[in-house]
């Protein structure tokens, strides 16, 4: 399976890009958010990818980060959520927003994605709530684009069985989750508190996020 592509963008469309990797063009479908973050035609880029294989179809989907790719794979595991709906959810909320909505049980945010009905949104939250802490703790390191012209450095890598954490350090939410786990909080309640704290203060660094989450977890008198 193709797990990562790095090469030159030949052209961009409304929902996909064509990436030239050593003379072979790969059509990669992406969310609107991911497309907006990519450079223009003629520039070099790298994407983590997931390959959808059906009897009559082969499609590549591209993601800027491993956490975005992991959410796509998990969303696709929910009954009624296909690739189009998964990309719509990720495009509407972003990977951090998806994690926050699921951790908080906020299915109305999931429903806001185009083409996602209330029953499907509720299934997403119910079926993935136990996985939210694990994915949120992965961090969100971006794929790294090659620095120079297309050549031997442009790669196609097989996807791992499980997407590993990126080489860059985890984000504030991941570090806060780890800290709360070390303090003995259950993954589900820690994820919910961190998600709520991050929603209240999106720019908060790790110490502030931990303090805010601990206040939310404190027993109410």
How does the overall form come out from the CA principal axes? globular
CATH topology of the largest domain: OB fold (Dihydrolipoamide Acetyltransferase, E2P)
CATH superfamily of the largest domain: Nucleic acid-binding proteins
Order of strands, main sheet, comes to 1-2-3-5-4
The arrangement of helices and strands along the chain is EEEHEEHHHHHEHHH
Radius of gyration: 18 Å
Strand content: 15-25%
In words, what does this structure look like?
The structure is a single chain. The chain is of the alpha+beta class and 221 residues long. It has three domains: 2-64 and 143-158, Beta Barrel (OB fold (Dihydrolipoamide Acetyltransferase, E2P)); 66-136, 5' to 3' exonuclease, C-terminal subdomain (DNA polymerase, domain 1), CATH 1.10.150.20; 172-217, Ubiquitin-associated (UBA) domain (Helicase, Ruva Protein, domain 3, Orthogonal Bundle). Helices cover 43% and strands 20% of the residues. The chain has nine helices and six strands. The chain has a five-stranded mixed barrel with strand order 1-2-3-5-4. β4 and β5 (57-63) form a beta hairpin. α7 crosses α9. Its main location: cytoplasm. Residues 1-64 are annotated as: Domain I. Residues 139-150 have a biased composition (Low complexity). InterPro entries: DNA_helicase_Holl-junc_RuvA_I, Hlx-hairpin-Hlx_DNA-bd_motif, NA-bd_OB-fold, RuvA, RuvA_2-like, RuvA_C, RuvA_C_sf. Residues 170-221 are annotated as: Domain III.
């Amino acid at each position: 399976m193709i797990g990562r592509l790095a090469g030159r963008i030949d052209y961009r469309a409304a929902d996909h890009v064509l990436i030239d990797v050593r003379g072979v063009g790969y059509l990669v479908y992406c969310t609107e958010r991911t497309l907006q973050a990519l450079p223009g035609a003629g520039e070099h880029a790298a994407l983590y990818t997931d390959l959808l294989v059906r009897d009559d179809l082969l499609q590549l989907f591209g993601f800027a980060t491993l956490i975005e790719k992991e959410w796509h794979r998990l969303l696709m595991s929910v009954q009624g959520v296909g690739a189009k709906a998964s990309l719509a959810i990720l495009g509407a909320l972003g990977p951090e927003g998806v994690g926050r909505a699921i951790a908080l049980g906020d299915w109305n945010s999931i429903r806001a994605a185009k083409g996602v009905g209330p029953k499907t949104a509720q299934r997403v939250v119910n079926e993935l709530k136990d996985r939210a802490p694990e994915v949120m703790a992965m961090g969100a390191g971006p794929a790294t684009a090659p620095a120079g012209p297309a050549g031997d450095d442009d790669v196609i890598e097989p996807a791992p069985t499980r997407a590993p954490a990126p080489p860059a350090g985890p984000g504030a939410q991941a570090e806060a989750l780890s800290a709360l786990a070390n303090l003995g909080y259950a993954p589900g309640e820690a994820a919910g508190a961190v998600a709520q704290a991050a929603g209240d203060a999106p720019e908060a660094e790790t110490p502030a996020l931990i303090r805010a989450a601990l206040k939310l977890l404190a027993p109410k008198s």
